[in-house]
Design a protein that fits this description.
Layout lengths: L2 H27 L3 H13 L3 H29 L1 H21 L3 H24 L10 H30 L3 H23 L19 H8 L2 H22 L1 H9 L3 H14 L3 H12 L1 H21 L3 H12 L4 H14 L4 H30 L3 H24 L40
Length: 441
């Protein structure tokens, strides 16, 4: 190994740390903090519940608007400027939200934050896969996804602490403090990220895959659309579970708010290492097998939450969800690299994120409608379990199809533009985790 290659090998760990930091800033601080700040912000601006929901919808709308564009820009120009620019946009949106004196201005701030969050998090999830060998792609993507869990762990205790110190109007200062933190992360990303190995701060000339034919292989690929449907089902079920988690415990089970909060904290801590865990599992047993197992465990989690009011069952449900929470997004990021190559992975992942966002928007709405009609959340959670099971069956069907030669990344899409040792004539590394359940490792 030459000196230059050894330096690049060591720098991959810096890239991985920056990926975690980018996801932490884009989602953990910019997006997840809204839930904790909302009660104080709602009182300060005198917002109705529907207006509070509208702010969340605006953020999701901005996120979905930018998901495709952000991924495509990162594939075309590299992740450095896209991630740092996205974080700056998210920071600006948080400043606007914190200074808003009206609902309409807060709406614009949350929409802008969503745009920036997508611009940073989509390439942030896939950036590290370009620096690691194919047998560690899922692990690297899973590690990047831990930025979400770190966000939950940090924001949970931080925001109540700040609000206690600053009083009722402290929500404004809290938004400004978080915005400053995201802006610092943007600067760190700008200084530290390299677009790809062997190209410090350079954008290489586009390969054939970057030209229109390559883009069509993403947006018109039946395999990518198949993954999109599975990602929709996952988003539908998991957001329905999370949205009414506390409400179900208080209204149906009789928990106090404090006891429900404790169970939610257990869920958050359980999710801390789930991305790394399932990335490692996917690299060992295959992407499809790992994702099927995740969705089956989530089916069990939702079923326990629906059918039992025993504390042991509810804790088991929270733990099962926590240890699987970010596994599917991590494996999806790795699958994108497998199918279209690391260079085009952000574009494919951004496209799939739109399906995921639609699922997140639809799941809570349908679950809420069912709960209103039946005055209980039992049916809503049984529905979530059924949808997750459909997702497991969907990815199992995807695995049976196998990998077509035209879906395999070409050598020029691999780091260093080198075909790895043991590559087949189709260009697929022999050690690539298989999607076929009949294949043995």
């Amino acid at each position: 190994m030459g000196h230059s290659q050894e330096v690049e090998t060591r720098y991959r760990w810096v890239i991985l740390a920056l990926a975690v930091l980018a996801v932490f800033g884009a989602l953990g601080l910019s997006r997840f903090s809204y839930t904790s700040i909302l009660p104080f912000m709602q009182d300060g601006l005198r917002l109705s519940n529907s207006q509070a929901g509208g702010l969340a919808t605006a953020n999701l709308a901005g996120y979905m608007t930018m998901a495709i564009l952000g991924g495509a820009l990162a594939s075309r120009f590299g992740p450095r400027y896209v991630i740092s620019g996205g974080l700056l946009l998210a920071s600006l949106g948080m400043v606007i939200t914190g200074m808003a004196g009206s609902y309409s201005l807060a709406l614009g701030g949350r929409f802008l934050s969503g745009i920036g969050a997508a611009g940073a998090s989509v390439p942030g999830h896939t950036m590290a896969t370009m620096w690691f060998p194919v047998t560690r792609r899922a692990l690297s993507a899973g590690t990047a996804a831990t930025g979400c869990s770190v966000g939950l762990v940090v924001v949970g205790p931080l925001i109540p602490f700040l609000m206690e110190r600053w009083g009722p109007e402290g929500w404004r200062r809290t938004w400004l403090v978080l915005a400053a933190a995201v802006a610092v992360i943007a600067l760190i990303a700008l200084l530290g990220i390299r677009n790809r190995p062997h190209a410090r701060h350079q954008v290489p000339r586009p390969s054939e895959r970057d030209r229109p034919a390559g883009w069509r292989r993403i947006y018109f690929s039946p395999r990518v659309w198949h993954l999109g449907v599975v990602y929709f089902l996952f988003g539908f079920a998991y957001m329905a579970y999370l949205t009414f988690f506390t409400k179900r415990l208080i209204a149906d089970v009789g928990y106090t708010a404090e006891k429900a909060g404790t169970l939610f904290m257990i869920l958050g801590w359980a999710s801390l290492a789930c991305g790394i865990l399932w990335g490692w599992v996917a690299d060992r047993i295959g992407r499809g097998r790992a994702m099927t197992l995740i969705l089956l465990l989530q089916t069990l989690s939702y079923s326990l939450f629906a059918l039992s009011q025993r504390q042991s069952a509810l804790v088991a449900s929270a733990l099962l969800f926590g240890i699987t929470a970010w596994g599917v997004p991590a494996i999806m990021a790795a699958l994108c690299s497998d199918l279209v190559g690391p260079r085009m992975a952000p574009a494919a992942y951004g496209f799939l994120t739109v399906f995921h966002g639609l699922g997140q928007a639809t799941g809570p709405y349908v679950a809420g409608k069912l709960a209103d009609a039946l005055t209980t959340f039992t049916t809503s959670y049984l529905m979530a379990a059924g949808v997750a099971l459909c997702g497991a069956l969907g990815i199992a069907a995807y695995r049976r199809v196998g990998t077509r030669a035209e879906d395999v990344p070409r050598p020029e899409d691999l780091p260093g533009h080198e075909c790895p040792p043991g590559a087949t004539l189709a260009g697929q590394p022999a050690d690539q985790p298989s999607l076929d359940p009949s294949a043995s490792r």
